[in-house]
Design brief:
By secondary structure, this protein is an alpha+beta fold. It is built from 11 helices and 10 strands. The model has no long low-confidence stretch (mean pLDDT 86).
Length: 436
């Protein structure tokens, strides 16, 4: 049964990814067709074609490697200024120029004379921007719908004011691990000294009434190493506990390698799943977006740790994963007998939603071959043409994104290498959410 659930979890997650990819590409295709651009191919996957069918001028299909997808819009690579795009130019000015001209030529092999006016580069800049932005925006919508449904229909874990665990000793976050045990040299935690017990409900902290754990946390952190008087409710009666918080290291943000020194008490809250409203979804999406942007910024640094894990180093639980790793985690979640059915579904939905949010923000990076690279080209074209019109200058025309192809090839190579590295790490040293 465990193996069957694992396979089912993997299959459902991969299917969710493929649907997300298809919807992303649909986000590009629909506005492209609406603006009169010619779209010749719509494929999910890469490599050998497994199945395809032609509807009108567009071929729809599936390819053998389920690692992405693409929509082919004719005329993405513009001709050189003043050049006839129907004639092959002899590029003898160097390898980079040859690379650019060969790409232009390859792009125009599929262009027919009747396609004039329907090419991507011929369209006004804001139409190009909408076409390229719509793909990742669809992923944002998918993430929002999934997270919204999860939070409003199932609920979100909310920290209560009731104590779930009392820490025995103080361990800096930089040294904390799942199997770290207290030693004789570790300091006893302030909560242990004060006599906290599991089940205590915190009523006030230094005279401030406590209504939520989010209210309590900043009070503890700001207290540094000062005295603390905490009123708790235990077995229906209020008791006053006294201690002094101490300064300890904690991570600056989730997934961050930076640490800050703050006040520490040594208690953790009881968690309860509670349904949330639209306002919570909006706030949470903002928090997740900021956290994902920071994660992308820390990606190169995290990748160093991933590379070390391949040759025997420890794999951080918050290190990035490939689709292979995420699928393995999905299978692990689906087969975990310690979770309820609702918890398994919630985990899988959250994983797929997080992946969509990551793909959206990653694609917004202003670098070819990502969607953001084409978006920046369209925006720059709009700025140039707008300034020229404002100052009465000649129209500078379209932005020649083909000149950025050498950079795009380098970026694509780096992305492929990173992807391969993550896949290898996810095979030889995978992240495991649950022990045993």
């Amino acid at each position: 049964m465990t193996a069957l659930l694992t396979i089912l979890g993997i299959v459902l997650f991969v299917l969710g990814i493929l649907i997300s990819v298809a919807l992303h590409e649909l986000g590009h295709m629909l506005p492209a067709k609406a603006f009169g651009m010619k779209v010749t191919q719509f494929f999910v996957g890469f490599g050998r074609t497994v199945w395809s069918v032609k509807r009108g001028e567009t071929e729809f299909g599936l390819k053998a490697i389920p690692a992405g997808g693409f929509v082919r819009i004719i005329g993405m690579m513009p001709p050189a200024k003043g050049a006839d795009p129907t004639k092959v130019r002899k590029a003898n000015t160097g390898p980079i120029q040859s690379m650019v001209e060969n790409a232009r030529t390859a792009d125009y092999e599929t262009v027919a004379p009747e396609d004039d006016g329907r090419l991507f580069y011929q369209k006004v800049w804001w139409k190009k921007l909408i076409v390229m932005a719509s793909g990742p925006l669809v992923n944002v919508v998918i993430a929002t719908v999934l997270f919204g449904g999860l939070f409003m229909l199932y609920g979100a874990n909310v920290a209560q004011t009731t104590v779930a665990t009392v820490t025995d000793c103080v361990v800096p976050a930089s040294q904390a691990t799942a199997d770290r045990k207290c030693t004789d040299t570790d300091k006893v935690s302030p909560a242990k000294q004060a006599g906290f017990q599991v089940g205590d409900r915190i009523v006030s902290f230094n005279g401030t009434q406590i209504s939520s754990w989010d209210q309590l946390t900043p009070l503890i952190r700001a207290n540094t190493d000062k005295p603390a008087t905490i009123v708790v409710e235990r077995n229906g009666h209020e008791q006053t506990l006294r201690t002094s918080t101490i300064v300890n290291q904690v991570r600056d943000d989730a997934g961050s390698d930076k640490f800050v020194s703050v006040g520490f008490l040594g208690v953790s809250p009881e968690m309860r799943v509670e349904r949330q409203g639209p306002g919570y979804v909006v706030d949470k999406m903002g928090e997740l977006t900021v956290a994902t942007v920071k994660a992308i910024g820390n990606f190169p640094q995290k990748l160093v740790g991933v590379a070390k894990s391949i040759v025997g180093g420890d794999r951080d639980e918050d290190s990035p994963m490939s689709v292979v790793g995420a699928s393995r985690v999905a299978g692990e979640i689906a087969s975990n007998q310690s979770l309820t059915g609702g918890e398994r579904v919630a985990f899988l939905v959250s994983l797929l939603a997080s992946l969509n949010l990551f793909l959206a923000l990653f694609n917004f990076i202003p670098l070819l071959p990502l969607d953001g690279g084409h978006m920046i080209g369209a925006i720059w074209e709009g700025i140039r043409r707008g300034l020229a019109k404002l100052f009465g200058r000649p129209d500078p025309g379209y932005v020649d994104v083909a000149k950025l192809l050498p950079v795009a090839y380098v970026a694509a190579s780096v992305i492929v290498v990173m992807g391969v590295l993550l896949v290898i790490a996810d095979i030889v040293n995978p992240i495991r959410l649950f022990n045993g």
